[in-house]
Amino acid sequence: MDAVIIAAGYGSRLASLSPSKPLTPVCGVPLIEIGIRQAAAAGVTRVVVVTGHRADEVEAFLAGLARRVAVTVETIRVADWSKPNGHSVMAGAALCHGDYLLMMADHMFESSMLAALLATGSATRDVTLAIDRWTANPLIDPDDATWVQTDESGFITAIGKTITAWDAVDCGAFLATPRLAEAIGAAIALGKSGSLSDGMQWLADRGRAATHEIRGAWWMDVDDPRAHALAEELAPRHLAAAFAVS
């Protein structure tokens, strides 16, 4: 199984701690390394990292990491990393054959959660998003979260940062098929900016975007200094294997 990790953006809210969001350390381990190790523990055998901002540094780090982890690590660089994240998804997906695990570089997940997500594939869906029904989770930043509204079958009806009604929050991990990148492209053709949410909404409007409830599994988005401080306190308890590195 392949994974695509989006690591191209600037990460302005973490800039006071690190010039590169994916290389921001949590208890001494860069976020991108934590993500790759957790993906590998979930059963991923190949990781494609999409780079952009400070790409030379990120790619140099990943070249060294590839010699230390039991998973193939490849990179692809986007020409304009200021574009919405759907453009990075399309770039990474182009290097994958079949379904893949899609992750954000600034998110951390228990490997068991990722493994459960990988087992949700079905012909009835073109993408499956991990969602948390605990929308009052204190680890969530409500001003930055992507919210999700679902129907009685657990399929997405609406997704985005500004939707007015929701019953779950997007955890930042997806089991994607090739149709996700095609949907982002279709949304762009309709005049959308090319965000991942644009592609998700395109699929949702056609009844093809499903969800997977994480049911108490641990995850967090490390997007600002407050979240980083919480990550340093909590992550080693939940992601112990990622911190037992040599």
Report what the structure shows.
With 246 residues, the chain is an alpha/beta fold. The protein has one domain (2-243): Spore Coat Polysaccharide Biosynthesis Protein SpsA, Chain A, CATH 3.90.550. Helices cover 32% and strands 25% of the residues. Strands 1, 4, 5, 6, 8, 9, 10, 11 and 12 form a nine-stranded mixed sheet that branches. Strands 2-3 form a two-stranded antiparallel sheet. A two-stranded antiparallel ribbon has the order 7-13. Strand 2 and strand 3 form a beta hairpin. Helix 1 packs across helix 4 and helix 5 packs across helix 6. The chain is globular, with a radius of gyration of 16 Å. The protein starts with a strand and ends with a helix.
Brief synopsis:
The protein is α/β, with parallel strands linked by helices and about 250 residues long.
Order of helices and strands: EEEHEHEHEEHEEEEHHEEHH
Q: How large, in whole angstroms, is the Cα Rg?
A: 16 Å
Q: Which class best fits the helix and strand makeup? A: alpha/beta
User: Please, what is the average pLDDT?
Assistant: 96
CATH class placement: Alpha Beta
Per the CATH scheme, the topology name is: Spore Coat Polysaccharide Biosynthesis Protein SpsA, Chain A
Specify the CATH homologous superfamily. Spore Coat Polysaccharide Biosynthesis Protein SpsA, Chain A
Helix coverage percent: 25-40%
Count of all domains: 1
Number of helices: 8
Using the alpha-carbon principal axes, give the shape. globular
Gap from first CA to last CA: 25 Å
Low-confidence parts: none
Residues in β-strands, percent = 25-35%
